[in-house]
Structure formats: structure tokens, C-alpha cells
Amino acid sequence: MTARRLDHVLLLVGFLALWQLLHWAVGPDVVASPAATIVRAGALLGTPAFWGHINATLTAFALASVISIVGGIALGLWLGLRRFAGDVADPILGTLYSIPKITLYPIILLMFGLGVSAKIAFGVIHGIFPIAIFAMNAVRNVAPVFRRTARVMRLSPLATAATVMAPAALPEILAGIRVGVALTLLGTLIGELFAATSGLGFVLIRAMDVHAVVDILAITLLLFCFAACVNASLRLVERWARHGG
Amino acid sequence: MAASGQISLRGVTKVFPGHDGHPDVHALGPVDLDIAAGEFFSVVGPSGCGKSTLLDILSGLSIATAGTATFDDKPLAGEVPDGIGAVFQQDASFFWLNVWDNVAFGLRRRGVGAPEVARRVDQALAFMGLTGFARAYPAQLSGGMRQRVCIARTLVLEPKVLLLDEPFGALDQQTRLLMGDELLRIWRETGATVVLITHALDEAAMLSDRVAVMSARPGRFIDIVTTGWPRTRDSRIVSDARFGAVTARLWEKLREESLRAMGVAAPHQDQRQE
Description:
The structure holds two protein chains of two kinds.
Chain A: H1 2-26, H2 34-45, H3 48-81, H4 83-98, H5 105-112, H6 116-140, H7 144-152, H8 157-194, H9 200-209, H10 213-242
Chain B: E1 7-16, E2 25-35, E3 40-44, H1 51-59, E4 66-71, E5 74-75, E6 84-87, H2 99-109, H3 114-127, H4 143-155, E7 161-165, H5 173-190, E8 193-198, H6 201-207, E9 210-214, E10 221-226, H7 241-262, H8 267-273
Parallel strand pairs in B: 3-8, 3-9, 6-7, 7-8
Antiparallel strand pairs in B: 1-2, 1-4, 4-5, 9-10
């Protein structure tokens, strides 16, 4: 465990060193120094107005995540249990997942207007498809021997679903949630970058407009840390569900 | 114990209907078979000969297209009756449960009370040499140990008939021999009827009271060999001269069928099928 912690520290030091070198190479007008960025990030976190933006982003992200997860799992389970529907939906979902969603932005904006709902909608269209695809495959890929075992143990269909199929599919579903939530955050932020009046994406684009280099990097750093924390916690949940498998 | 765990097949046939213009597949039969209560019965045959189809019918997982299958004089009809347990080749241990909870699973689903569950699970774990691994998860165990967990999970339900579909197929040779000894011990101590499906001749010859040799598809019994081993046998029987005679006879029958299954011999047979 200590060796792994050392790896993390080395990685962090190496990252900061590269950043510092980049700062020296291209100059403070393009990349602010790590020290200046960290100081600025601390200062931003001490500003009530900035917390208002954080709050706006987190609210949109949380709602978009909940909709993506609930909708994606429901869709994925339904398609996974109905082989024919799944066969039909599989290529459609794959296409929806891979199209650049940014092209849909004008439509989303016209449908939802310049507010929190457009951000949420944009987050959801990024997150829901990967979660649905993972959930569908999770159900389809449950080892047939588990189903046979359930039948030999004379389990009812409901008991089979609840006590065998669900736990067997859970790790894959959680992997989908991890990927989907990361993309939901991306979608929410993109929504804020293009058309919003609050949120971290909005602050970021405003900082770009006035060429506030330190602000840009400070916000990016905070977003980076937040995304890494979300990902790490979801990975922990996933590892628990796999029990080392 | 008498007349409990007895299985009879009369004219059992299985035909899988063809899909998308493919012809029907005649997988099995017709076969007649009586497996006595408390017998150790094995079935060997070439790949794809319908061994697993036979097991599905014996367990009640699948219904015969024609003929009747009975377990203790009650018909087997598409549902697994109480008293039949099955262990498969693929790892079926539940990775989300530790060993103790895996073994307790079936008892809990049947609504057995907690103290009784604890007593029977602890007993089954001790019986299978798993006591020290009660809190381990399957991912932490070897393939052989995981198969022990599956066997313990089945035994704890006290089946009268234990069906084994190539349970040691994924294990290495030494482990297979030792698991074979383990199986003989289980068979002796529980008094259950054991039906073992395998492609390993030596395994079948070493373990069984009787060994049925199946033909290439559609699967039929072309020979049933009685070994005559004492009830207290173990894997050391492989050094007995009679063991050689039994395996030789099995191989002689099986060689022909395996070649036919591979499409090497008996071209007339193939033409007739078309």
C-alpha cells in the first residue's frame, strides 16, 4: 500500500514539474504557473459569488446524473431482458452514443431555453446512452450457468431476478455508471460553456473572454480535481461490487 | 433410503426444432435407462453426442420430446423436483457472496430458519474442507476450490440425486483425481445417487458402478459396462489390472463413435442422415 501511495506522490510531483516547465517554455500569458494557479483557486474558493457558480454546476450535474442513471438503467435492463428489442436497439444506441452531441446543441437550446434545464438536458444526452449500453450488456452477459443454477434451486422468476441476475449484472452496470457520470459532467459543462448565465463553465468562458489566464487554469484545476474525486469514489463502489472478481 | 433417488427413462427422445430453414436436430434417443437408488452411474460419449441434453432431462430442466422420464416414480416435466441437485462444468459460484453465504443461499431461499442454516452450512463446509475459507470470496479461490463451493452449495440441500455435468472438466489432472476421491467419499457418506457426465474415460471407469457409452448424435447407449468395484474404492484403483480391462472396453466402443462424430469414418451413416 505504501508503494502505491509513493507512486501517487511521484505522479503528482512529475505532473507539477511538467506544468512548471510548460509555464517557463510558453510564458505566463499562455500557461500560468502551478503556484499562482493554486493560490488563485484558493482565493476563488473564498468568494461567495464563486460558490454560487459551483452550486449551479453541481445542481445541474447532480440532476443530470440522476436522470442519466435511472433512465439509462431502466432502458438498459428492459433492452437486456428482451432479446429482440435489444438486437434492434443495439446499433441505434451505439450510433447515439458515438455522434458528436455538440451538433444537437442548437436544438436542445431551442427546446429548453437558456437555463438550468438546457444544461441538464445536455448532460443527460451525454450520460444516458453509455449507461444504457453497459446495463443492456450486463444483463445479456450474465453467465447462463447462473440462470441454470437458479432453476435447479427452484427459484421463482422474481427471486432469480432479484437474488441472482441483479447481483451478477451489478459490476458491469456500475462500470457504465462511472463512464456515464463522467460524460454527464462533460455534457453539463459544455452546456454551460455555450449558453448559460451561471455555473463553472460560464465562469470559465468569461475568463477566456477577458484573457484571465490564471482564472482559466484555476477553474480547470478545480474541475479536474472534482472529476477525479467522483471517478475515484465510483471506482471504489465498483470494486466492492466485484469482490475481487 | 430404499427406492429413493431412482431414475427411469423409457423411450426418451429429444429433438430441437430447426430455426430459419435449418432442419430439426435429433439430439437424443430413444433411450431406456434405469438408474438404481444409491448407484454411481457415469455417461461417456463423444463431443456433441447429447450428454448434456440427457442431463437436462434427468434434472427436469428440459422436457423430452417423446417418451417418459421419472424420478422416484414421479414424472420429470420441465421443472426441477425437490431432491435433485446439479453441479455444472462452468464456475457457478456466486462471486458477490462469500463462501459461507454461497453455501447458505439455497437454504435461505427455501425459508429454512437461521440456526438450522448455520448448522447445516457449517457441516457442509467442514465436509468439503472449506471451513477455513468461509469468509473468502470466490475470486480469492482456485478453480478446484470454487467447484467445491458449488458442490457444498448443492449437498447442503441434501439431494437424493446428484447430477454432475463434467464438473472437473476445467481442472488439472491431479486435482481431477483428488476431486474424484472426494466425490466417492460424498457418494458413500450421503447415500445419494450420483450421475456423472464426463468425456474422461479414466474418470468414469475409476468412479462408477456402471458406465454408459453414448453414440454420436442422435445419442443412444451403445454399451453399458458394469465395473464391479467395491463400494470403498478410491483413485488407487487405477493401478488395478481390472481397471485397464474396463477402460480398454470403454475406449474400444468410444473410439468408433468419436471417429464417426468427427466425420472420419462411416460415410454410409452420414449419407443416410442426409
